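Archive entry: two folds, one per protein. Generate the first.
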Amino acid sequence: MSEPNIYEFISFRDWLTQWHAARQADAPAFTRTEVSHRLGLPRTRGYFSDVLAGKRVTETFLERFCELLDLPKAEERFFRTLVRFDQAETPEEKELALEQLVALNRAPSFLLEPAAWSYYRDWRHGAIRALLETQDLDEASLPKAAARLQPSFTPGQALESLQLLRDLGLVTKDARGFWKPSQKTIATPHWARDEVFRLLQAQQLDLVRQALVRPGDGSRAVATNLVSVSEAGYDRIRQSLERFRDELRAIVHRDQDPADRVVLIANALLPLQEARP
């Protein structure tokens, strides 16, 4: 059984799982317990299993993993970056690690294409795309319109977003020479629904926080609820949120009136306590 290509993974735990399966297929005695022993834990049976299940890898054990894996230098750098990406504690750290993964990757089948990654890494690109739907704008008039967004854009940011949208085919010029979205809504690719999209969501939720500390004019609607609920109730809430998201998309898709504003809609269901066994 051949070992997996590390460049095709975004999770070091997933890669380790398949690496171990390949190794054990060739050497049945190479169990998870044996891996723990080779990592310098002769009296521990479950450390490697715990890592695969989500246990944090310290710098000491990262070095031990690298020694055990004995990867070529380029692949070792990629593995180290995968670990940093997984264990990043802030959106900024995670974004930096993901940028490094894109730069280090040597496989054309990697999950992230640079242009698509550029779109999802910054909320501003989606905002400009939405803004183009609300007004007749070209390169000359876009910067002034974008400056009225909250938070506002610099002219350079607005034109940079427009260029990216053009490159991705997400906007086209109409018969009058104005830039318009090429389609009403866009689907999020499967990879962006995981790690990359979380970075975008973190930015968008920070916009909500910023808006809450600014004086309001009564036009915004923000509601939060802190409740206790059963597992069954939690599942029903999550399903309700999914139905609400589908309804929102349908409203946007079927809206026949001219768009006249850019809005951010955010909803979140966040467990503040781990479920009891």
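Generate the second and append.
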Amino acid sequence: MKKLSAIIGIVSLLLLTGCEYFQKYFEKNSKEVVVAECYGKYLYESDLVGLVPENTSTLDSIQRVNTFIDSWIRRQVLIHQAESNLDKEALNLDKQVEEYRNSLVIFAYESQLINQKLDTVVSEDEIAEYYEQNKEDFQLRNTMVKVAYIILNEDEDGKQKAAFKKLMSDPDTLLLQNIDILATYYAVDSRLDVDQWIRLDELTSIVPIEIFNAESFLKKNRFVCFDMNEHTYMVRFVDYLLEESTSPMEMVRDNIKSVILAHRKQAMLERMKTALYEKAKRDRAFEVYVGSPTLYNAD
């Protein structure tokens, strides 16, 4: 019993560093003993039941109690700030349990703060720097290709096939407007945007090319034309990247931008939480009380 009382005293001293040490047995009713108070919210002894398992050392007990109380205070400080800055509509979370309500309030406040203060401009230099420093994170899981293809119904005289084959097999005319115009009238399906990457297996699910070795096939074939199931398939390969090679920056630019913004959000929120806690500490907005001599052991 004496040991437990000593631990509680030590915890209070740790949390009240720089303040005059005191003890208060503050009871809101005949049953509940207050351990800490912050902006009119109270942490009760019953909230700490089971926090410290049996046979826990004195040092570990102090650590657990100290960490839990400090975490509770930081949360109450953040809740108070959020409630003070959000309008009544944002705080209208009736019929929700308190913890769920508090989580929603904090989320709303953090979102408002992000919308108001987060710098969402990510420069090309920042993207390039992140890409160079994290290339190992951008390995391809699939072989990617830049490709144009045309799927035609087989024609009796072969004129359509000949016209498309001439245009599609010549890389200098691949992007000419007349290919697109002809495709509109004669093609069953087509893809002519060679600036966008697609997975090779996505291509082969549309165009039934048999590829046993992607590297060997793509090195040897820039244009493929074949007939199957009453259709003519023509494919022009413009570029390719093999599985496990590094994604080009153009392919991952949007992902990198999202990662950079996510890091900014996290850093901004952490700075805000720390500043609020330190201000509340300076203003003596919270107090930690010593409860009964029973340390909060598991039952």
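Annotation attached to the second fold: The chain is about 45% helix and 15% strand. The radius of gyration is 33 Å.
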